[in-house]
Amino acid sequence: MKTTAAILVLASALALPSLAQAREVTLTTELKGYDGDGAYMAIYLTDADGRYQDTLWVAGKKSKYYKHLKGWARGGGMKRAEYDGKTGASLTSGHTLTTRVELDDSLFDAGYQLRVDTSVEDMRDQRADVIAPLTTAGAGQPINGRGYVKSFTYQL
Fold it and tell me: What is the torsional sign of CA 92, 98, 104, 106?
């Protein structure tokens, strides 16, 4: 019996290095100055074809407005389980949001993208305001947004 247990412990120890490793990634999103209310924002992960994979963060507490974050809402199906525990207050003009997430090492340099959708009440919604290829070389390199986002960076 002891030999069987020892073999199982040894086999488990040898298998552990093959398990995927995750790393903490800091996401920083700075908004441009604009006239208007606070922005709702979804930061999410897509594959190389732009297909939704996972929600990383949603700024804005009222879920009834999430439908305006069109790329994210369509991909995640607006299922509460997709964003539970990943939300915070909306972000106002000229301010910066910094959040930390755990991402699996296998996602880097494999065609995945970080995307940011934004929406401001009574203003235009910005689907894919930012599309950032998830590469190790891209870490720390600011990317300009196409709408309300002034710059977006991720740090490893």
Answer: positive
